[in-house]
Structure formats: structure tokens, C-alpha cells
Amino acid sequence: MKKIIYTILLALLMAPHFTQAQGAAGTVGSMSSFPVVYKYDEKVTWYFDLSATTFAETEEVYMWIWSPSEPDAGHWENSSDFAKLKYEGNKVWSFTLTPTQYFSKTAAEIAASNGFWFRLKNKNGSKQTDVANMAYTDFSSFYTANELIIAYPSKPTIDKGVSILFNANLAPGFAGASSVHFHSGLNNWDIKQEYQAWLPDVVEKTKLKDLGNGFYKMDLIPKQYYNAPDGYVMENLVFLMIKDNWAGTTPDQVLYAGAYTPPPPPVFGFFPSQISQKDFLGMSRKNNEPGVNKLLYTITAGTKTISGEFNGGTNEIKGFVNLVSELNDIPDLKEIHVVVKDNKDKPISDTTIPLKTLDK
Q1: Cβ(129)–Cβ(120) below 8 Å
Q2: According to the UniProt entry, where is the signal peptide (predicted)?
Q3: Closest C-alpha among 247, 251, 265, 130 to residue 180
Q4: Domains in the chain, please, with CATH?
């Protein structure tokens, strides 16, 4: 505990301009990396959630880091281009680096340092976050764990990274492998990414990173890797490792997904709340199920039937019907009957809507 407190105090003392409260932008939120686990001489992308800070989506954000070293030293008031972060959307910024190159340190020197201590700032330093630390997962214990497979995290989620470590020394028939490949799928092979040795792009996509001495690593984000549709619920990730061109295989492996938080239920409604036959009738459905991308409507108004459809996506499907022109030739309507279904023929609404009587 004393060492932790000392490290934090040291970071605060070393942090430039830490007393300038007037430029405080707030605290860096959740942080992650891809790959999830990596060696210090491996390229990695760090992700920072700045939604709780005062940084706007249009602002340029820069890295100011002083441990393990201070690559942009002397440029607090004019950050270098190499320290600029990339905006990813939804108030998340990223920074890509190879630690040994960026800090001009050996892997051993970085491992012996106090870790990755930094602030995020605007270019001239007039705005800065609180001091933050990017955590590092040391996976060196895998080399002596006598485990065939270890995954970080052990229960992955569909939209976050996972690093799968493989000890080929424990797999019969894998000695002398020139390459190892990942033959896999989601939800008991519902969505597959097979290893197809005759397709160069698939060979490259499924190839594990060789860590040396019979150890390998596969890094992926399930939604991207399997091109899963929006709203797809990941229950498990199944896979086996393949030596060269099917010269050897492991038994089937499975990783069970982390806790799944279901989306909010669909919400459908008409608007405005009161209409006449001289108005536009709006309808909207939010939080749609996977694969639902259309609303198909049929309106019965006296002896006339009006049909059509609106397109959209998982977040919302929305549209308007021009009753002014559609009902122009039908006087004194009291009500209309509206039936709405989705593109899977599932009933959404079967409603009679009264029409306001307009003064003549």
C-alpha cells in the first residue's frame, strides 16, 4: 500500500502544470487497450473515454506522458503532432504506439518503471485532464502456467477485445509448426470464420501472432472479426487451433461470453397525439429487434386504403403519412384504422385513431 501511495504522489509531483486548476478538464473515464494483452515491443492502441470531461467532440486532444519517459518534453504549450490522439466517436479517443519505440526504452526498462502516467490536454495546454494511469496486464505467467489456452478476459463480450494465448508445446503434433491458425465461430458455429488455407486473405486473418518458443496469441474483437449484425447476442466463442495446412488440430475449445445486458424494449407510437385529415400522421418505433428495419402500414379511411413502408434501423424507424393529399377527396372523416407490421410480418399496432373535426 505504501508503494502505491508513493507512486501516485510521485506522479503528481512529476506531472507538469498540475496546479493549474483553472484548466482542469475532468477525469479520464474508462480506459482499455487493443490488443488486450501485449508485449512492450508490440503495437497497441489505447482507448480513453472522455465523456465526463469538458473536451468537445470537435477538439483536438494530445498525449502528455512522463513515465516511463517524456517523449514530448519541452512542448507543453505546443504539443507535437506525434502526440495527437484520434477521435473514434461517442467521446472516445485513441492513441496508437509501440511502447519501446515511443519511449525509447527497452522492454526491461519499461517493466521496471512506475508505469504509464499521463494527462490528456489540448494543444496549448490551457485544458488538461487529471493525472491518469494506463494499466498494463503482465501475462508472463502464462509461459509457466502449463495451460493450453488462457484468454484475457476469460469471458469476452461481443464489442470488446479479447486476447487468446495458446501454448503449442502442450498440443500433440504441433512441434515445428510454420504457422498456427484460428478456426472459430460464435454461438456454437452460428457465425463462422473458418480457416481456409487456399485463400490468402483468410490465411492472414486467422493467423496467430508467434510469441516465440511455441507460444502464440490471437487478438480480436468478436463483432468486427465475425462481422456480426447489430444486436447479435453473443453466448460463446468456439474454436480450435490448426497447425499449418491442417497438419494438426487441438480439441474444440469454448469461451463463454460475459454477462449480457439486454437492450431496452421496443417503443412504438403515433404523433402528434391529435390529428385531423388535414395533418401528417407520424409513426416511430425505437429499440428495434435485430433484423427489423421496416415498418409496413395499412390505413383504412372510409372506402380508401393507403399502404406504404418506412425504413430505418435498430435505433429507430420513423416516417410520416401525408393525410392532406391522401384524404383530400373524402369529406368529413371521423376516424382512420391503422395496422402496422414489421418486415418479419410481426404485428406492431392495430389502432383506430379519431380525427378532429375542422371548422368549415
Answers
A1: yes
A2: 1-21
A3: 247
A4: 2-134 (2.60.40), 140-256 (2.60.40.1930), 267-354 (2.60.40.10)
Lookup: cell for 327 = 384524404
Distance CA 103, CA 93 (A): 20
Residues 6+ positions from 99 with CB-CB distance below 8 Å? 40, 41, 44, 68, 105, 107, 110
The span from the CA of 208 to the CA of 201, in Å, is 14
Which has the closest alpha carbon to 319: 282, 277, 356, 278? Answer: 282
pTM passes above 0.85: no
Residues 6+ apart with CB under 8 A from 206: 181, 182, 183, 184, 193, 195
Confidence of residue 231 (pLDDT cuts 50, 70, 90): confident
pLDDT at 252 (0 to 100): 94
Residue given cell 461481443 in the structure block: 158
